[in-house]
Every structure is written in C-alpha cells, then in structure tokens.
C-alpha cells in the first residue's frame, strides 16, 4: 500500500505552476525570478549541528530494503545520492520501530540491533556528503497489512482493517520501542530522528477523535489522545544524548483529524523545548483547509503564525520548483521538505542553487530517467502508485 492512495494526492501528470505565481510581473514582462539565497542559508537547531541549508529531503518510502528490514545497497545508493545532491537534511523513509508495526513490504527496520550495521553505513554516507542525517520512526498501527504482520494493532478496534486495540501494556511497550529505536539511530550515527505522527499511522490514530475510541487515559480529551505522542517524545529525549535532534511530523487533515486540534498539538510541540523541528505534511502548501470553519486562510498559515520558541517549522507538499520553495520560506516556513521533485532530480537543491528558476522535468517520466536518478526497479514500480508519475510502457 502506498503512503497515500493512488490519485488522491498524485501530481497527475502535472505541469508545474508558473514561475513567480504570487507577485509576478504583468504578462508581457519577463517572469519575475525571486531570489533563492535564503533557501541556502544555514539553519541552526536547538540541539546538535546546524543544517547547512533549508531544502530538506522529505521521508520517502521506497520499498527497497531487505525483507527483514535491513538496509540494501539500492536504498543506500538512492539516499546517499540525495545527500550528495545538496539536501541540507536527508530523511530516511518511515522505518518501523516494531516488527508488528510494519506498513510496507521492503520497509527499512530499526527494531533490532541486526539493523545497526546497515543503518551505520547509511548515516555515514549521508553525513560524509555534508548533509544532516535523520531517521523517520514509524509504526503503522491499524494500517499494517495483515499479510505482513498477521494481526494489526492500533488505537482502537477497527472493523475495516480488523485491527484490535492495543492493551495498556502494549502502549507502554510502544513508547519503549520508539525510545530504543531512537537510541539505535543515535548509535548508528544519525544526527536525529523524526517521529511519524502523520498520515493516519499509529500516533495519528491516537490523536484522531474518530479512530481513537479508547476510554482509558489515552482516549477522550485531546490531552489524553495526545498523551502517547508526548510520552514518546519524552522517552526519546530521555534515552538520547543532549546533541541528538528530534523532529515531529504531523498532518492536519483526513483520518478523522480536526485542524483546530492539530494546531493545538503543533503549538504544544513548538513550545516544548524538546523538539528541534516540526514538519507539517500538508500535501499541498498552497491548498485551502477542507474544514469550512478554517477556509479564510490557506492551510499552511494556520501553522506559520504559531509561536515557535526554539523549534523550527517546515512544510511539505507539492513544492515542485525553486521558486515555489523560495516563496514558501517567504510565507513563513523555516525550511521546506521536498519529495517528488527530489525523486525526479537527486540534486534538486544544487540545481536550484545554480538556477533560481529551475523547474523539474515534466511528469510522467520514463523508468530510464528514474533509474539514472538512482531508483532501483522495485522503487520505480512503487512510484507507479502515484498516478501520472511514471510513463506507461509504450
Ligand atoms: C513515494 C512516496 C513515499 C512517501 N513516503 C513517506 C514516508 O515514508 N513517510 C512520510 O512521512 N511521508 C511519506 N511520503 C510523503 C512525502 O514525505 C511528502 O510529504 C509528500 O510527497 C508531499 O511532498 P511532494 O509533493 O514534494 O512529494 C511519501 C510520498 C511519496 C510520493
């Protein structure tokens, strides 16, 4: 199952939006190219080293790991190439913290010391290229496919997936396993981890008033539903060293989430002093909120106006050009997370640095293009889940 279903958020063979769409000169004049230098200013973080720039690689599931979750040469190659291409921080795909939380075939694992040698090679390759290295920590909860995990477990019993509610002991074990996985990432040499609290996976399942039907201290009020996220954060901080970086990814829509509640959680995360960066997964930084009550402002603006304390705020979603990335910083983000543009071009940041008007190749692209950009055949096949991204064989 892809991170998001086909067609819902796909680029759909998109044509990039025009350069300088906000604030461009009247037609007839040469297009206004906004300066991109701010994208390449270093970004200090509350813990550990600064990021060399503000164009970061979004977490991208690529299904290239070995069946036991150990790193493959293909996954190493794909990510090392992105680090060498100028991303200020290179985030791994979602990596599962428990065998039973696997969400995808070929998913990277971080639940056993057997994963350490591969993770150590990966962190070293990314850091040698001058990029920060971060590992995304994930548990799929009720979104774990049965064929991978047997009986899925989540926040509550769920008829559709057949998942059953975690017991209190299992919730405690989950907190422990997130912390052990973070410590494992630290031992492997990563600068930090990102907690995957987005896209309807386990942490988001607990946050959701629709999915979470628990009647214990993890259900009911928003404070109770957010308890797991903040317990995981505290446990990770307690287990890892003072220089270790911790990010959190949240998404504000779908899976029964309420925008106002996620804004409250984001506000708490930003002021917690424990979090280096909040990464808001918006799927489109230019979109309006789905909830009518919030439609007087773009979705992104509901987060950029929050008090950040020492935490940095980044956003992801349909950032296809250098101009769109630069405009997003102007709109108030501290950094941008780039997904599909960085799949199309391993050196998207370097290209933008050289030419502020850089626009990626139009989609769909051929498998040969993706192979040349460092994707193995299994990853190319996975990208067919994103409608309009990979050309059909003619
Ligand atoms: C192939 C693919 C795999 C993804 N895997 C993950 C993932 O492992 N973890 C995650 O939080 N988001 C994942 N996402 C979402 C991206 O990180 C990103 O937020 C999203 O693609 C929007 O950015 P873009 O429009 O620049 O691609 C994935 C997206 C794609 C296209």
Describe this structure as you would to a colleague:
It is built from 14 helices and ten strands. The chain is an alpha/beta fold and 394 residues long. It folds into two domains: 37-355, Aldolase class I (TIM Barrel), CATH 3.20.20; 361-394, no CATH class. The strands form two sheets. Strands 1-10-9-8-7-6-3-2 form an eight-stranded parallel β-sheet. A two-stranded parallel sheet has the order 4-5. Strand 2, helix 2 and strand 3 (132-138) form a beta-alpha-beta unit. Mean pLDDT is 94; it is low at 5-25. Bound molecules: flavin mononucleotide.
Q: Tags for this entry?
A:
394 residues; alpha/beta; TIM Barrel; 2 domains; 12% strand; binds flavin mononucleotide
Summarize the entry for a quick read.
With 394 residues, this protein is of the alpha/beta class.
What is the strand and helix layout of this fold?
Layout: E1 55-57, H1 73-84, E2 89-96, H2 116-128, E3 132-138, H3 146-149, E4 153-154, E5 164-165, H4 168-188, E6 192-197, H5 202-207, H6 222-225, H7 227-239, E7 245-250, H8 259-270, E8 277-281, H9 301-304, E9 312-316, H10 322-330, E10 335-338, H11 340-344, H12 348-354, H13 367-372, H14 377-382
Parallel strand pairs: 1-10, 2-3, 3-6, 4-5, 6-7, 7-8, 8-9, 9-10
What letter string, H or E per element, gives the SSE order? EHEHEHEEHEHHHEHEHEHEHHHH
Lateral arrangement of strands in the main beta sheet: 1-10-9-8-7-6-3-2
Fourth-level CATH superfamily of the largest domain: Aldolase class I
Reported CATH architecture of the largest domain: Alpha-Beta Barrel
Class derived from helix and strand content: alpha/beta
Helicity level: 25-40%
What's the main sheet like? Answer: 8 strands, parallel
Mean pLDDT: 94
How many distinct beta strands?
Answer: 10
- What spatial form do the alpha-carbon principal axes imply? globular
Through-space gap between termini: 25 Å
Attached small molecules: flavin mononucleotide
């Amino acid at each position: 199952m892809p991170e998001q279903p086909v067609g819902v958020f796909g680029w759909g063979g998109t044509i990039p939006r025009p350069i300088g769409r906000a604030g461009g000169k009247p037609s007839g004049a040469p297009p206004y190219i906004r300066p991109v230098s701010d994208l390449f200013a270093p970004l200090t973080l509350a813990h550990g080293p600064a990021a060399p720039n503000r164009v970061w690689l979004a977490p991208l599931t690529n299904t290239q790991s070995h069946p036991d979750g150990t790193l493959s040469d293909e996954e190493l190659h794909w990510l090392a190439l992105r680090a060498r291409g100028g991303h200020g921080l290179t985030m791994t795909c979602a990596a599962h913290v428990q065998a039973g939380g696997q969400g995808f075939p070929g998913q990277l694992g971080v639940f056993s010391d057997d994963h350490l040698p591969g993770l150590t090679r990966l962190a070293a390759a990314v850091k040698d290229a001058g990029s920060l290295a971060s590992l995304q920590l994930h548990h799929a909860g009720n979104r774990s496919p049965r064929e991978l995990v047997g009986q899925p477990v989540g926040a509550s019993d769920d008829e559709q997936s057949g998942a059953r509610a975690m017991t209190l002991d299992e919730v405690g074990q989950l907190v422990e396993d997130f912390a052990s996985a973070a410590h494992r990432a630290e031992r492997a040499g990563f600068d930090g981890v990102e907690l995957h609290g987005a896209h309807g996976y386990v942490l988001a399942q607990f946050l959701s008033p629709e999915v979470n039907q628990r009647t214990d201290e993890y259900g009911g009020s928003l404070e109770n539903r957010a308890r797991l996220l903040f317990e995981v954060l505290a446990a990770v901080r307690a287990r890892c060293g003072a220089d270790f970086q911790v990010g959190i990814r949240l998404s504000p829509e779908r899976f029964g989430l309420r925008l106002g509640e996620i804004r409250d959680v984001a506000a708490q995360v930003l002021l917690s002093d424990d979090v280096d960066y909040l990464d808001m997964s918006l799927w489109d930084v230019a979109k309006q909120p789905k909830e009518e009550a919030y439609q007087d402002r773009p979705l992104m603006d509901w987060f950029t106006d929050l008090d950040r304390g020492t935490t940095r705020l980044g956003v992801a979603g349909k950032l296809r050009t250098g101009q769109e990335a630069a405009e997003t910083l102007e709109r108030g983000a501290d950094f941008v997370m780039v997904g599909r543009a960085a799949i199309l071009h391993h050196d998207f940041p370097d290209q933008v640095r050289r030419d502020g008007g850089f626009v990626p190749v139009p989609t769909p692209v051929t498998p040969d293009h993706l192979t040349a950009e460092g994707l193995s055949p299994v990853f190319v096949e996975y990208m067919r889940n994103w409608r309009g991204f990979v050309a059909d064989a003619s």
